[in-house]
Amino acid sequence: MNELFMDFLTILLPSFFFFYMAVTLLHRNIKSMLNRIAALLMLAFQFYFLGEYIKTSLLPQYQMQIVLYGNSPMLLLVICCLVHLSVLIGNPATSAFKRFLPFIYAAPYTLWLGFLITKDHRVLYNAEVTDGRSPLDPQFLLITVLFIAGYILLSVIILAVSWFRVKEIKHRQVLRSLLLSLFLLFAWFVLVTFLLQSKVLTSRNAMILFFIGYLLWAVTLRHLVGKYDIMPDYRKLFHILFKSAPTAILLLDQKGDVKEMNPRAKQWLEGIPVHHIMSYFQFENNMPVVDMLALVQQENEVQWEAQLHNPKKGDLDLIMGLELIEETDEKLYVMHLTDVTSLKVAERKLLKSEQNYKYLAHHDSLTDLYNRAALHELLLEKIERRESFALILIDLDNFKPINDRYGHFVGDLYLKHIALMLENCSQPDDKIGRIGGDEFVWIISSMDDNSELDRIVDHRLSLLQKTPFTYKGIEIPISFSAGVSQFPRDATDITTLMKNADEAMYTMKRARKTGISSLAD
């Protein structure tokens, strides 16, 4: 079997195994720094041994360039990544070593560049040496060997420190296995180097043995990644997040019963029996829990508003998210509850403030009747709908003397009494408002029979005269003048309707009569 085929079997073909391991590491978790550095180490191995194959079997005339510009930096990258991996695997015990990583990478490459700049390349690598000795410059070879051995030993020390400090059993198993593999790799490297320097092995055979040792170590490293999952313990992280989450989290079974809850949920649900927890929730649209779970199976995730009524802890307004977990042996549902009580309180206050503002904008502040602006809007709506109605304008007689004699406080009570009497006389569809100091407007649905309308209005307004205002034993009679105008009989716009009612009202006032009048009269 010729040497070219032997090199193919022993170096080139197995080197692609490094590429396979690099790809699987990245595929496993490309976001993990540990996996990325391990993959970089595998690729550096591949390119190093690929360069050896090309140098030895394909392009021996370029072996100096391949060694100095290809294999050397790749070998340095391998040992730098080895130290970096040891620091990452030993974390958090080795977190202090991270500050030295830039120096770990810079030191060997600085010396490598220094040799390339200061020495002739033919001196650094003598291609004429074919007697089994290393063609590298003795000083360059010595420093390279020292760096390789030193970095392997440094990795062993870092892992040993981590193994001594770490208490978690799983982590200690990983560190112990890596320590053992590195000791064996270091021993193998020393043994092959000794045999090479003793001329027991040729450079080519030593390279094959180096390759076998590194390959076995890389396989061991990849095995540890797969077996012990040298990555963040996501189950542990999830458990930590579950316990420390600021929101309440409940785990439900298919029946809606609570199987597990985090501390925040236990705090909110304190004093409530576990098997009765869901009955203390009031969900949007009053949907039962079982129906919500069925809906989640169709949409995978849903969100509702909810309220929690806990007699011991008070009421909470919540936003509830419900999600189905399908990666378990049984169907489970995660319920996330976010406290939005303060937001809801602010929302209710804002809504109430808005309602108060609208109320004040449309009502008289003294009597709580409609004001002029509100009456104007109501009349416009009725006119647009072509709805028949009667507008009654009421003006109190002798109101100024009441203010002058008894004071404005009594005058205000007098106006409130009038407003209350008008409301008592009105029907649910009627609209009553105050448009001035002692002027009121009463809007009632009109009738085809005008005489019937006049009779009804006279009857209702007569109640004002029958119920005088009394204050501290003082009885003040109620006297008023009123005018009526009908839509659309008398006018089809607000201005004319008000003008007609006003003229009819002053007709009664000039006649010094208490009652109601219309232009038709």
UniProtKB/TrEMBL annotation:
The keyword Transmembrane belongs to this UniProt entry's keyword annotation: yes
Keywords carried by this UniProt record: Membrane, Transmembrane, Transmembrane helix
Alphabetized Pfam families for the sequence: GGDEF
Domain GGDEF: 387-521
Sections of the chain in a coiled coil: none
Sequence intervals crossing the membrane: 6-26, 33-54, 66-88, 100-118, 138-166, 178-196, 208-225
Protein name: GGDEF domain-containing protein
Species whose genome carries this gene: Paenibacillus chondroitinus
